[in-house]
Amino acid sequence: MRYRRRRQRETAKEVVVPDDATYVEFEGVSKTYDGVTPVVDGLDLQVHKGEFLTLLGPSGSGKTTCLMMLAGFEAPTAGAIRIRGRPIGDLPPRKRGIGMVFQNYALFPHLTVGQNLSFPLEVRRVDPEDTRKRVARALGLVRLEGYENRKTTQLSGGQQQRVAIARALVFEPDLVLMDEPLGALDRRLREEMQYEIRRIQRTLGITCIYVTHDQQEAMVLSDRVAVFHDGRLQQIATPEGLYEEPMRNFVARFIGENNRLSGRIENIDGAVCDVRVGDTVIRALRVVPGEVGDLTTLSIRPERVGLAPEPGLFANEFEARVEDLTFLGDHLRVVVSVLGADDFIVKIPNVVGHGAVIPGDRVRIGWTPTDCRALDHKPESTEP
Amino acid sequence: MTERPAVGPPARTRLRAAGLTLPLVAFVGFSFLFPLGTMLSRSVYDPLVADALPETLALLEEWDGETLPGEPVFAAAARELETALEGRLAGRLGGRVNRVASGMRSVIVRGARAAAEAPAATARETLMVGDPAWGEPATWRAIRTAGERFTVRHYLRALDLDRDAGGSIVRQPEELRIYVPLLLRTLMVSGAVTLLCLLLGYPIAHLIANAPPRRARWLILLVLVPFWTSLLVRTTAWIVLLQTHGVVNSLLVALGIVADDGRIAMIYNMTGTLVAMTHVLLPFMVLPLYSVMRTIPSHFMRAASSLGANRRQSFFRVYWPLTLPGTAAGSLLVFILAIGYYITPALVGGSSGQLFSNMIAFHMQTSLNWGLAAALGGILFVVVGALYVVYDRLVGASSLKLG
Fold first, then answer.
1. Distance from CA of A301 to the nearest CA of B (A)
2. How many degrees, rounded to 5, is the angle at CA B279 between CA B278 and CA B281?
3. SS3 category, A52
4. Optimal mutation site among A64, A67, A73, interface B, most CBs of chain B within 10 A
5. So where are chain B's domains?
6. What is the pLDDT of residue A177?
7. B60: which strand partners?
8. Does A225 lie in the same domain as A190?
9. Res A14: pLDDT
10. Which fold has domain B179-399?
11. A99 and B318 in contact by Cβ < 8 A?
12. How many CA atoms within 13 Å lie on the side-chain side of B186?
């Protein structure tokens, strides 16, 4: 708990930076290795103090490069990165005071757990007594009390992960970066560690920037998620915001399951529009600022589709044919063919009388215009 | 991966597989263990005198060593020397006794000739006519010592020790001590060569290990090409470069750094030995270092710098300790090779740059004192073995990464 007291004292000293102010800022940051292909392209991003922000995206989307530029291992080709308003371009990594957890932990194999943890303190010339106390406290934080004299090679993957986190925290940085730290762990352990990381971040009130390609992990951990694709920031929002209100086709596909229908905007009516798919017209929420005649992709979450609804309940209602049906305990997953698509998914909660259907049945399905978002149109090849 | 129960192949198959190693086992036995054993046995076992003079030596056992032995001893010696002369053994016999006390070769040979050609009334007179030294107890003591079938005197010689008249072990007078100072010098040269190789090889290995794969292949080739080049060619190249009117000296004179009559002696001395040996042994340092450095992921250094370490701290606290297995392997390899190095010092070492092995070669080829050569070799063997044990205690042999 001394961490928190100490941190409060520091913030009190620096009145210029209130708690909700921008802590890290990327402004027009670009990175290219060959001068042609951008790895990161014109990134503008603000990270608030005390926030848990996840950079989410498929491999090659530029998220790790962003983290490496912030840590100081890569230099941006253009743009500026600021911490507390101060540009850090000229600072070497060791002077940035950022704690970093690496993908493969990067624990020094020739040192014990205790020596690994005291390393950042010893290079800062903290006196031995204080070092010992701080190491013990950091180990307590990750629930590895008394592991000081273990060899890091004798630890399990989860334990190594905890040591790596403790080492990134032991010198009390205000900002911690984590580069896919749970990638090497099995699923059960990963879930346990997600909870641990969240608990530690909240306890210490530190700012944390986390990189992952696992959207579930991003949802569980983050205050906000920044979705990357092809070196560009697609959308930054809370996990709920990303799921409920994806602003781009890629985000809708990458976060959760969705049904996609391609069509052309036929009529615009304020916030909604009519989209022609085949020879049917669908009423949808107009998210992309397109013109009449533009191609668009409609995104409909499977659980927002009603199966055999009361007639007239939804503005969009269509005849569908049940193709396949899977019972998944809490819900029923029905694959239907409708509007030229044969893989349209409908999820029905497992409640009494959910309306038993069998493959081959003809049913009506429907959804409201607000659950049907007209997004940008992208060719299918950019599948995540 | 599923764990399979550990069931080995059937006994027949295993036997057949073991049979494949037989040629190697036979080869190693024939070309390594057998010569090693015979040479080492020569250092303690020398039956020539004992076989040639069995009766004399048997009689000498009763002798007090102070007075002159009695007539039966002379008679036996005269008879056996005559046989030795007929068997053309007298010269070699003399040579063996000569190693115990110098001057004995002619005493033995003349005695043998006298016994064969001019027998006098008594055997004692016969031998003393051949050489008056037969009348001195020292001659008989030398014969008795040389007649020991199993002996440590080669090792005493190799360690600059001797037996005094009373038989107790004493150090040789200072001006006669050769081998121990030479061994110490060899150890020092090997240490210096190892250090030079480490200082030169460490940055090279680091450069190769961290270069992009294409360039790394070229760089490793640059290390290997000299490695594949004949040792003689490389050593001779150093002669061309370093001799008095060689490339380096001429360049220094041309640049006005050295006067024409003050050319530096860089070869046929210790400098030549050091330079050429360091060059020849450098790949043995670079290759183990490189193979260890290649396995050190770059994120260790990134982690160190993100934790606040500067370059010096990252190197000495993270990188250097992680390269220790390679450093230790390379150093051990270079040191052990250097300690037994022969050709290079022989070619470019002059008189001051000769090492222990050159002395062994001298006793093998020139003085033909194989017993002493074997004893010197045995000492080298023990020193290297001891070094390995020390290394094993300090670092652990299992951590050796030889490439």
1. 39
2. 65
3. strand
4. A73
5. 48-151, 179-399
6. 92
7. none
8. yes
9. 38
10. MetI-like fold (1.10.3720)
11. no
12. 26
